Amino acid sequence: MNAAQIDRLIAGLPATVAEGHRRRINRYAATALRCDERITAHRIELQRALERVDEAAAHDGAVDAADEAIRLAVELDALERLLPRMYSWLRVAVGAVSDDPGLEPFGEGPT
Description:
It is built from three helices and no strands. The chain is an all-alpha fold. The chain has one domain: Up-down Bundle (Receptor-associated Protein), CATH 1.20.81. Helix 2 (19-57) runs antiparallel to helix 3.
């Protein structure tokens, strides 16, 4: 899902949606978008960190650079695993108030 798809999904909400439910949907959408932004940023930074490992290895100092690359890779992995769950919660929340129920939830979503 991308920002335009999320916007279309939210734009299709009936006007009669309760304010509390609409806020929940907006929270899921904002969190999914931010997660996607962070994934993009982490991929770029991880590539740079790996280049620093390569440069540091030439001087026998790759440990700190490698540790930073590992930290970024772990964060990226967590974000990439989280994003489909956020999309699922968003689709289910929208489906609860629309004609299209969407997909079944992925994991337990917050209420």
